[in-house]
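Bench log, entry 3. Co-assembly request; chain sequences pasted below exactly as received.
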Amino acid sequence: MSPKREVRERLLDLISKAEAANCGTTPEAVVDEAIHEALLNQPVLHTCLFPGCIRQHDARASLAGEPASRPSWSSAGWRKVTRGPGHGDICPDHAPVVTKHLPNRLKLPNGRWGITCACEWITPPQRHHPVLRALWEQHLLEVTGALPAAPPVTDSEHRIPLAEHTDATLTELYDRLWNAEDAYQEYRDVARACMVAYTIAVPALLGAKTALEALRTRITLDSRDWAHDKLDALLYAVIIGWNCENTDPDHQHNPIDCPSDQGLWDIARKHDIPTDQTIQAGNHRWWIANAIKAAQQIEEQAAKQQEVN
Ligand SMILES: [Zn+2]
Ligand SMILES: [Zn+2]
Ligand SMILES: [Zn+2]
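Structure output for the full assembly:
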């Protein structure tokens, strides 16, 4: 007989059959219920994903909206990372640093994997993707100062003297060379693809901006009341916009020199334009304004580049 069984028997003996019957139950039923409840309410402890941190919280209690069975298992302030190679739970102490270094897993050409960190740190391409998690953990330890940063192999001060090279140190160097050659090829392919997309997209965007701005000028100079007719009002909503588009942080909407953020809704009400069409017109206006802004940024960058050259 297992010890567990013995305790159960002892418990059954301690409960009076008569009293159990008075409560409409049996000692067996009560003990089984107690075991069931204890099993169901077992804490489900999740440990902080920060390497070396042993803080835990009770995910079951948190899900059930109950207080944790121990204060140290409270879920208050815990965060969750749900994607990438670093998914898991983060304790309140480590939430700020982990949030600054959330990793994104990259699928690279030739069956390789990499990470880009929110701080712009990247891994060299890897062949076995579970390695990424360990590399990211090492990065976390380096940025928090728990681990000194590795000196670069190419640094002359840290070079291994020729006589001290071994099979292992040479293999490491050849691995790095292999990685570098591979990365060079990959990044060149990526750069080429980006360049092709850029040379197609930029003239198209700049052309659309020129056409839209000409149309805008044409409409603003027209003496017609663009609010009078429904189709005119919709065209105006998309090409120029009925709402105030002043993004100056000091600007406050006012009834004197700006149409406020209700202009589009006022026009929609006047012409009985349905809500979904009004929202759509607002979205289309935003896309056009945003495309023109992006085109302007490209032009400004190009102008700066020319100044440098
Ligand atoms: Zn932690
Ligand atoms: Zn980082
Ligand atoms: Zn305004």
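The first helix runs from residue 3 to 14. The chain has three domains: 3-40, 47-143, 198-308.
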